[in-house]
Design brief:
EC number: 3.4.21.-
CATH topology: Ribosomal Protein S5, domain 2
Radius of gyration: 23 Å
CATH class: Alpha Beta
Number of strands: 12
InterPro entries: Lon_proteolytic (IPR008269), Lon_Prtase (IPR027065), Ribosomal_Su5_D2-typ_SF (IPR020568), Ribsml_uS5_D2-typ_fold_subgr (IPR014721)
CATH architecture: 2-Layer Sandwich
Protein name: S16 family serine protease
Keywords: Hydrolase, Protease
Number of helices: 8
GO molecular function: peptidase activity
Length: 263
């Protein structure tokens, strides 16, 4: 019977279920989150009136410049994201459509997610402190570090926390600042041994960094391609794989000597 239909009718008839699927897709919530550039925070400064990094048991330097950790903001786990939102976010450079499970890996319960993100942040802070003190060859029995950053969860500030501790205790190692007075931003997880890991959302984080005055962005080397995809004008990428490498790159940039890697 279908083979006997003229071509126009065949198209119309076969299109009916497709139209139905499109209408259903438009109306149905989809398992995605829409993300955009979030807040940044200078780990060398204060957050809501409280120092982000507090150190006791060792002399602390006065620092210049900024080390800004970066974030993304995403629709909540219970938000209704439809096909129109996905299509709009897909084509915009200031938004990204991400699988909800990649943004909220612990489930749909808001309290459970908050607990998970809080625990991830705590573990990141512990690892950042251990990595920084190990790099400086200082024992955590003598030096106590407290890290405070409100309303931020997850592990992606680890690298910047470690760099902030190093800058406050040792700077560039010869009396100067790691930042060279610049606004440096970045992202990356960190392990206690100083290994830097990828985090996701770096293209949005570079936009947040540039918006808040950064001219240099430290990015996990594995995410160089993503970071370059929509790189804001005036922002220089420096790939990193370890805390030691990140410090050496910043010192070379500050002193204008030595090789500074690029993506």
């Amino acid at each position: 019977m279908f083979s006997r239909l003229s071509r126009p009718w065949a198209v119309v008839v076969s299109a009916v279920p497709v139209v139905g699927l499109i209408v259903t897709a438009v109306a149905a919530p989809l398992p995605f989150s829409v993300a955009q550039p979030g807040m940044t925070a200078n780990v060398l400064g204060e957050d809501k009136g409280t120092p982000v990094i507090t150190i006791s048991g060792a002399d602390v330097r006065e620092t210049r410049g900024q080390l800004r950790m970066t974030t993304i903001e995403a629709t909540g786990p219970d938000a209704r994201v439809g096909l129109g939102d996905v299509l709009d976010g897909w084509w915009r450079t200031d938004q990204a459509v991400m699988p909800r499970d990649s943004v909220y890996p612990s489930g749909d319960n808001l309290k459970e997610i908050e607990r998970y993100n809080t625990e991830q942040m705590r573990q990141s802070q512990d690892a950042a402190t251990e990595a920084a003190l190990s790099y400086l060859k200082l024992g955590d029995d003598d030096v106590k570090v407290t890290l405070e950053l409100a309303d931020v969860g997850g592990p992606s500030a680890g690298l910047l926390f470690s760099l902030g501790i190093v800058d406050k205790l040792d700077g560039d190692g010869s009396g100067g600042d790691l930042t060279g007075g610049r606004v440096i931003a970045g992202t990356g997880t960190i392990d206690p041994d100083g290994t830097v890991g990828p985090v996701g959302g770096v293209a949005l984080k570079t936009q947040a960094a540039r918006r808040d005055g950064a001219t240099v962005f430290l990015v996990p080397k594995a995410e160089c391609t993503d970071a370059k995809s929509d790189l804001p004008e005036g922002l220089r990428l420096i790939p990193v794989t370890t805390l030691k490498g990140a410090v050496e790159s910043l010192v070379a940039l500050e002193k204008g000597s030595g090789s500074v890697p690029s993506c």
